[in-house]
Amino acid sequence: MDTVKSKNSKVYYRHQYWNNIPIVLEYICENYTGNKQKWWIADFKERYCEQPFEHALVMMCGNGWVERELYDKGIARQFSAFDYLEDLLEKARAKKAGRRIHYFQADANLLELEENKYDLIVNVAAMHHVQYINRMCRMLCWALKPEGVFVNTDYIGPHRNQYSQRHWHYVKKINAQLPQQYRKQSLNKPRLGTMLHMDPSEAIHSELTIETITRYFDIVERHDTNGGVAYPLLTRNRNISKELTPDMEKWVQYILQEDRKYTEAKKVPPLFSYFIAHPRKTVLQNDALLNACQLEENAREAKAAKRDGIYSLSAYYQYRVKKWYRQTFKS
Ligand SMILES: C[S@@+](CC[C@H](N)C(=O)[O-])C[C@H]1O[C@@H](n2cnc3c(N)ncnc32)[C@H](O)[C@@H]1O
Which of 23, 92, 104, 330 has the most CB atoms within 10 Å of its CB? Predict the structure, then answer.
């Protein structure tokens, strides 16, 4: 029995995302690494890989670009990578050529890994699909060697993109300031029903990512990349293409400028984060804490299962999201 409800790989890699636009990528690089021209992989390689790691695990690898790029940059000598969807794994296998990458099929929510097996674990845009996020983080802590490194870049915003009213008010405000021809048309707050229909695992517990990872890992550095305004306005905006005209570029720059301003003023939260962490192995000896966290997770999921996978109707979950906004603005 698996937990995966959407087995359609077409939901991935099909839209224009904000980071497909070159100047947006520069903005993300600047926030992640302090250098517009430096992608996090180059930064990670420079500062953490004097010697290649021996064995790396890439979570939920999709079409495999992450481990191919990391391998080609010499970040680890060998990789293991898993995904649930066989057709994506086939694509990844077809492109691996002579690289030392071992692919396996697994459901992240049921994954079993060997203790202290990996020197490096990498999450790129995947943890936000994990339903049993506590179990997963605990498993990653267990599978990483004590001196191992966990590197993450992912969406950490409100679950299933259920932004607060206040947050959405600012997104709409900036959209209205754009010339008509660049505005995102039909700018609607993502509807829970649509999210559940498209892919119920999308951002299923994203707002718990930082909280859950810090339960099992010490985050040694964290670099957020804003996005509270720019991500919803530039993702799937049919009026803005990645081949920018000079006028379009001026307005994309405007969106990025406002994105920075609104994030710094704590009017909108950062939605993406690049961070590096080490496992806190001692927590694995704390049976009381491990049991309590797993029981809480199991109860949350059992309750949601009775409501077709909906969490946000419960007062508890609305409370969690509100708490997340409060804590994010405080830090
Ligand atoms: C947004 S894609 C990211 C893929 C890849 N990391 C990348 O950056 O291109 C999310 C991936 O998670 C996989 N996935 C979703 N739920 C999963 C699960 N329960 N177990 C394993 N893989 C899963 C999907 O098949 C998909 O490849």
Answer: 92
